[in-house]
Write a structure and sequence with these properties.
single chain, alpha/beta, Aspartate Aminotransferase, domain 1, Aspartate Aminotransferase, domain 2, globular
Length: 398
């Protein structure tokens, strides 16, 4: 075969593989829509009509007879005040995205400290999911404290070999399994940064649900940091948006940079109202979701053992939040097909998220427990595991 023919054949194979995965994704989303039982029904799985219906009752959250917002006033300012109150900070600023919000907060701190270096975890969101935005756009220089699937330790912060102006901690660390430190570990890490005259910024996209594991209030947790970022859609089911909370002077400067970054949007009332709804309706329920996620995790472990798959890892074994990882010794595509087939044939979707390759013959997915997940009993979970395993090759599958 000529080099040209071989390349054509490889390209055709890659195209077919991409098309197959695209079809599988479409089947997965369709199965999620039709499933009678899932652990969570996220906004991006819903129609526009369903999403707009979630704003029903918004008159209880804000005076809808007031004029609509204009460039960050009105309902947006009300949301900012609500967030600052919950976190116990002097002020807060609304941003359209967390990527923008954290860049702005950290470049503001860099101007104050005179050091653009940000110490963070190798699995933190800016390092994994933002296309090097810190360095390419924000003028910041990230350095990695560790790549272990845990939070950085106080020793790693204290003994790092070069100066840094800010320490960024992602609470919880999503790509390591939504893991959190203990309260004692967190306070020690913060103290180690202070010893180095570094400011501390919390990437708190999922800070809202971290109170259970840390055993402290939102105000106490946020009070450890110099600034905090929070998201309105990851757990609160808002339409989008984020906020930076901290000292008033920092927040006022962040608003200037928000404008420069193009984040001062003409009108944002739907997103702001949905965030207020999330704070009112979902925030109080998060501890219940965390508690039930632990029931689900235990049932998954027991179900896999009973189904003859003792090498199945739930991580953390006792979830720190209402989200956690499941690891299985199969290729990702095999697990995805089994997940979708199970949902199509039984109406029960055990694993709604995509599977990602974690090594040869090893894959990982995320399990997210929300209000829909409260309907599952431990026995429901074990039954679903048995149905799923039956559709895996070599496990009596069909």
């Amino acid at each position: 075969m000529s080099d040209t023919a071989e390349r054509d054949e490889q390209a055709t194979g890659q195209g077919s593989d991409q098309e197959r995965r695209a079809r599988l994704r479409e089947r997965r989303l369709a199965a999620h829509r039709k499933a009678r039982r899932v652990f969570a029904r996220f906004g991006f799985h819903k129609t526009l009509r369903e999403r707009l219906a979630e704003l029903d009752g918004a008159e209880d959250l804000y005076d809808l007879d007031e004029l609509s917002d204009l460039y960050g006033d009105g309902v947006v300012e009300a949301l900012e005040a609500k967030v600052a109150g919950l976190l116990g900070t002097q002020a807060a600023a609304f941003f359209p995205t967390g990527t923008m919000a954290q860049q702005v907060a950290l470049r503001c701190w860099a101007g104050r400290t005179g050091n653009p270096t940000v110490a963070l975890h190798a699995l933190s969101h800016p390092e994994v999911h933002e296309r090097n935005a810190f360095s390419e756009v924000g003028g910041l220089r990230p350095v990695r404290l560790t790549d272990e699937p845990r939070m950085p330790s106080a020793a790693e912060v204290r003994d790092f070999e070069e100066p840094f102006g800010a320490l960024m901690l992602e609470l919880p660390l999503r790509d390591a399994g939504f893991v959190l430190p203990s309260w004692e570990e967190l306070t020690e890490v913060v103290a180690a940064a202070r010893e180095r005259d570094a400011v501390v910024h919390f990437d708190g996209a999922r800070l809202w649900e971290s109170t259970v594991h840390l055993g402290r209030s939102l105000e106490e947790i946020a009070g450890l940091a110099d600034s905090v970022y929070v998201s309105f859609y990851k757990s609160l089911e808002g339409f989008g948006g984020a906020a930076i909370a901290g000292p008033r002077e920092l927040v006022e400067e962040a608003k200037v940079w928000r404008h420069r970054y193009g984040g001062l949007v003409f009108q944002q009332f739907p997103t702001a109202l949905s965030a207020l709804a999330g704070l009112e309706r979902e925030l109080p329920r998060l501890p219940e979701y965390v508690a039930h996620a632990r029931v689900v995790a235990a049932a998954l472990r027991e179900g896999f053992a009973a189904a003859g798959l003792p090498w199945a890892r739930v991580y953390p074994e006792v979830p720190h939040t209402h989200d956690f990882q499941v690891w299985l010794p199969y290729e990702a595509d095999v697990l995805m097909e089994a997940s979708v087939r199970t949902a199509e044939e039984t109406g029960v979707l055990l694993f709604a998220a995509a599977w990602s390759r974690g090594g040869p013959g090893l894959a990982c997915t995320e399990v997210c427990v929300r209000s829909a997940g409260l309907e599952w009993t431990a026995e429901d979970v074990k039954t679903a595991v048995a149905e799923f395993v039956a559709r895996l090759p070599g496990e009596g599958g069909r």
